[in-house]
Write a structure and sequence with these properties.
Length: 201
C-alpha cells in the first residue's frame, strides 16, 4: 500500500504545526518552507483553507487521497455529524489505536508494526493498518514481539490515562478499545467542517 515518504518537517512547516510529532526543524523555522517562506503573506481563499484542512487530516493520519475519500463516503452514509464521524473513523484505524496506546512512538512506526505482524486484535494477528477496530476489541502486542526494544522504549513512561476510550493492561501488553471517542476528547487540531464543505461542492 502506498504512503507518503517525503520530508515530514516540510509538511509540518507548511501547516505550522508538529503534525508528525515533536519537530526540531519546525521549532527552529516556524514559517512556510521554500525560498520565500519567511516573507510570504498570501491571503488564502475559502477553497484553499478547505483543501489545506483536508491535506492536514490526511498527513496526520497517514492516509492517501483515495482511502480518505472512501472514509468520507462511509462517514456521510452514517447518521450523525459527518465531519465528526470521519474523525472517529480515522481514530478507529488499527495503526492509530496502536499509536494512542503508546505501543509505537509515531503513527508511521505503528503502521510498520502492524504491517510486520507484531500486533493482534482479539488474539489474532492483523497486518492491515487501516483495519477498523470496534468498541470492545482488544489490541495487543504479539507474544514474539513483546521483547522488542522499540516497543519497550515507547511504553516506558507513557501516560495510559490520557484517553478515556482506551484501557491498558501492562502485564498483557494489551489495550481495550472501550468506546468511540466523542469529538471533544480527540486532541487533533482539525476543522473537519471545512473538509465536509470541500467534499460537498
Amino acid at each position: 500500500m502506498a504512503r507518503y515518504t517525503g520530508p515530514k518537517s516540510r509538511i509540518a512547516r507548511r501547516f505550522g504545526e508538529p503534525i508528525f510529532g515533536p519537530d526540531k526543524a519546525l521549532d527552529k523555522r516556524n514559517y512556510a518552507p521554500g525560498q520565500h517562506g519567511l516573507n510570504r503573506r498570501r491571503k488564502n481563499s475559502e477553497y484553499g483553507m478547505q483543501l489545506a484542512e483536508k491535506q492536514k487530516a490526511k498527513y496526520t493520519y497517514g492516509v492517501l487521497e483515495r482511502q480518505f475519500r472512501l472514509l468520507f463516503a462511509q462517514a456521510s452514509r452514517k447518521k450523525g455529524i459527518t465531519g465528526e464521524i470521519l474523525i472517529q473513523l480515522l481514530e478507529s484505524r488499527l495503526d492509530n489505536i496502536v499509536y494512542r496506546l503508546g505501543i509505537a512512538p509515531t503513527r508511521a512506526a505503528a503502521r510498520q508494526m502492524v504491517s510486520h505482524r507484531h500486533i493482534c486484535v482479539d488474539g489474532k494477528v492483523v497486518n492491515i493498518p487501516s483495519y477498523q477496530v470496534k468498541p470492545g476489541q482488544i489490541v495487543s502486542v504479539r507474544e514474539k514481539a513483546k521483547s522488542l526494544e522499540v516497543i519497550a522504549a515507547s511504553l516506558q513512561g507513557f501516560n495510559h490515562g490520557k484517553y478515556n476510550w482506551l484501557e491498558w493492561d501492562e502485564n498483557q501488553k494489551a489495550g481495550k478499545y472501550l468506546n468511540i471517542p466523542p469529538r471533544e476528547e480527540i486532541p487533533e487540531n482539525i476543522k473537519e467542517q471545512l473538509i465536509v464543505e470541500l467534499y460537498s461542492k
